Amino acid sequence: MSNHFEVIVIGSGPAGYVCAIRCAQLGLSTALIEKETDASDKPVLGGTCLNVGCIPSKALLDSSQRYADAKGHLSEHGIGVNDVTLNIPEMMVRKEKIVSQLTGGVAGLLKHNKITVLSGAGQLLAGRQVELTDAEGQAVLYTADNVVLASGSEPVEIPPAPIDGDRVVDSTGALCLDSVPARLGVIGAGVIGLELGSVWARLGSEVVILEAMEQFLPAMDEQIATESAKIFAKQGLDIRLGARVTGVEVTPEQVTVGYSLGDVEHSETFDRLIVAVGRRPRTDKLFSGDSGVSMDERGFVFVNEHCATEAPGVWAVGDIVRGPMLAHKGSEEGVMVAERIHGKAAQLNYEVVPSIIYTHPEVAAVGKNEQELKAEGVDYKAGTFPFAAIGRAQASGETDGLVKILSDVNSDQILGAHVVGPSAADLVQQIVIAMEMAASTEDLQLMVFGHPTLLAAVHEAALAADGSAIHRVNRPQRQQRLMGSLDRLVLGECGVYQVLAERFL
Fold it and tell me: Computed over its alpha carbons, how large is the radius of gyration of the chain?
């Protein structure tokens, strides 16, 4: 086997293996390096997402939701289910089977595309040389015309709550608990914390989520974040904002978490604690100091808009570069890089990358949110529509949440969309398509949407932006904005300001 390839990709996660496959499809000799191995010393393909991230978490989210439905919601449909039981080991077996099938599928695709898979730790050296070190410490030198760095990310640890893999676990450990904790603590109310907290809450845990930030989901549209918080509270998730963890005391049976709320010190005792405070790029020993690649103080590799580093012929994609740590973003960066290596003028529209939280209901967004548009001084209009007024949502018993569409007042171009509600990820994807095609709010208004569908909420939200929604009372834009502000000032579950606004506007 030659030690020279046209492309060497370091990392087999969604960004890396997709890039490798696309390179091979374009006729480029390609090698893929992966350092993680299984018990048989075979490379573990698929990265964090496939093995200990997106896929296993979604398997548990689905299983836990089915259990919750059988336990408490099917009776609403006239379906009686007696003696609902929970078997955590079987649930974990199902999860692992799904992971195995998908990782095996990746291996099959790499083989079909004649990609050379190399096992070991890859490090980029000067001159596009790649040193591969195997488990025994033996090093082999490879060269390439192009090198793509795609090493992914890893959970962040915090000093007050060290991971012990037993009572205190990270996101990986949270996917492998052998029983349902009576009380579960979660540090971090971001995407990972909310999803994992939701899994175990549905299975019976009393879940307390401690979030250091004062604002819930600050990257999301404020109205959507507020609505989401109300829904999660109704589901039993105890989310405490402004809670800064100061220390953790672990015993064989429990873990006690100390935290401050303002100037007041508190403590809570849990059976298990999940630390979910985010992820950081995995760039340690990824490249040598003379490789020509540089990174910022947080460990992210510097790249241009096409994911090219400062070193000629060296690229970086996925979680190790700027932007959100999303598998689909990394995959599309991998495709873009492969095509640019082949000479195509490919580019990625970062303005229309969707973000999703796979709770139930889901929370999803694309484009600008309302607070961003206000800060930028954009003259915009907003259309919102609740799922409670959608026939399909009523029929399914999924009436929580709303759809929100933002567009430019002058051009009518869609600037963003935000959803909390059933199938939010799929609904936002429809807006992603519209935005990619430079569609206007009017384009959505003139489209024929199937009935009865959840997508009708998208149609109605687009109509509402111009005060022409069919299945709700329309208000002038000024009043709509006032209502949106008042909606966020919810007093408990009473919605006093909402009632007043409805009466006097």
Answer: 24
**Structural domains of the chain ordered from first start:** 4-155+280-348 (3.50.50.60), 168-277 (3.50.50.60), 355-474 (3.30.390.30)
For residue 361, say if its preceding peptide bond is cis, omega within 30 degrees of 0.
yes
Specify whether the CB–CB gap between 377 and 425 falls below 8 A: no
96 neighbors 59 (Cβ within 8 angstroms): no
pLDDT tens readout for residues 148-170: 999 999 999 999 999 999 999 99
374-426 residue pLDDT tens: 999 999 999 999 999 999 999 999 999 999 999 999 999 999 999 999 999 99
Q: Across residues 3-20, what is the average pLDDT?
A: 98
392 three-class SS: helix
Catalytic residue among 306, 342, 451, 471: 451
Separation of alpha carbons 209 and 187, rounded Å: 6
Give phi and psi for 322, each to the nearest 5.
-60, 165
Question: 350 by DSSP, 3-state: which?
Answer: helix
459 is catalytic: no
- Tell me: the pLDDT tens digits for 335-357? 999 999 999 999 999 999 999 99
Tracing tokens 């007041």 back to the chain, one arrives at 264
If you ran DSSP here, which 8-state letter would residue 71 be given? I
**Residues 407 and 415: beta-carbon distance below 8 Å:** yes
Which helix H or strand E contains 198, and what residues bound it?
A: helix 191-202
Please give the Cα distance from 84 to 75 (Å, whole number). Answer: 12
Q: Cα-Cα-Cα-Cα dihedral of 230, 468, 424, 156, to 10°? A: -60
Instruction: Give the whole-angstrom CA distance, residue 386 versus residue 305.
Output: 37
Strands 206-211 and 183-187: parallel
User: What is the percent of the chain with per-residue pLDDT over 90, rounded to a whole number?
Assistant: 91
